[in-house]
Design brief:
There is one protein chain. The chain is of the alpha+beta class and 254 residues long. Pfam families: 2OG-FeII_Oxy (PF03171), DIOX_N (PF14226). Belongs to the iron/ascorbate-dependent oxidoreductase family. This is Fe2OG dioxygenase domain-containing protein. It comes from Exophiala aquamarina CBS 119918.
């Protein structure tokens, strides 16, 4: 395991500290490719509430979860052990629920308060992501709303998603992959975790020297409830011609 610094950035007093925060975000994006946000406006209770909603959904029988089927064209809906990783050659040991604002959602009859709680959570996440991409957009030479226009939730072609993930209990078999190493294809990811649910490991792309970083050293990122882990994705790196640093990641094999 290698020790790597993941910068911690506070969004407190954002409007008054915008320039300072922008500098911190750019430095983190260009070096680590990962950062942790605090003072972001989403409370620990709200995060726990959303995780409770997620847990309730994944506890449903398969036929109930299947009412929100995964659509390959839009990449929305529920999928079960459906992601085959080129990095491992096997399917990830997880299930996911992908949601866009205008996609098919689970019913509140199956999971009480699912829609109201999740939509409110998505709204708060949108505020945070808009702030981040506006700062990065300006720093990279784009208009402040450049990335926000492309992720306007009122538009039918908006690709912003909320993804809930459930990793079933491991059977302890050696060599079992929870999720193979990968990069995120979007602009950025806001990752929420719960205390004690460790597993995420990272390897900055510029530090990887083997295919999918399978022969490189990954750094564990302990899980904490409250801070948001932000991952710079492939699309943002593409837009700025490699100025930012994409990161390989994944809950590693047991």
């Amino acid at each position: 395991m290698a020790a790597r610094l993941v910068p911690v950035i506070s969004l407190k007093d954002f409007e008054y500290r915008r320039e300072e925060i922008t500098q911190q975000l750019v430095e983190a994006a260009e070096t680590a490719g990962f950062l942790t946000l605090v003072d972001h406006g989403i409370s620990v209770d709200e995060i726990k509430q959303q995780f409770a909603i997620s847990k309730a959904f994944f506890a449903l029988p398969h036929e109930s979860k299947g009412k929100t089927p995964h659509d390959l064209k839009t990449n929305n809906g529920w999928e079960y052990k459906a992601q085959l990783r080129p990095s491992t050659g096997v399917y990830d040991e997880k299930e996911s629920l992908w949601l866009q604002r205008n996609s098919t959602w689970p019913s509140d009859e199956d999971v009480p308060h699912f829609n109201s709680t999740t939509r409110a959570f998505m709204d708060k996440c949108a505020v945070i992501s808009d702030r981040i991409v506006s700062c990065l957009g300006i720093a990279l030479g784009f208009p402040a709303d450049y990335f926000q226009i492309a992720n306007d939730p009122s538009k039918d072609d908006c690709l912003t998603q909320l993804r809930m993930i459930h990793y079933p209990p491991s059977q302890g078999a050696p060599g079992t992959w929870r999720a193979g190493s990968h990069t995120d294809i979007g602009c950025l990811t806001l990752l929420f975790q719960l205390d004690g649910e460790d597993g995420l490991e990272i390897c900055p792309g510029r530090e990887s020297h083997t295919t999918y970083a399978m022969g490189d050293v990954f750094t564990p990122l302990p899980a904490h409830t409250g801070p948001i882990v932000v991952n710079i994705g492939d699309m943002l790196t593409y837009f700025n011609q490699g100025r930012t640093n994409f990161v390989l990641q994944g809950p590693q094999k047991k």
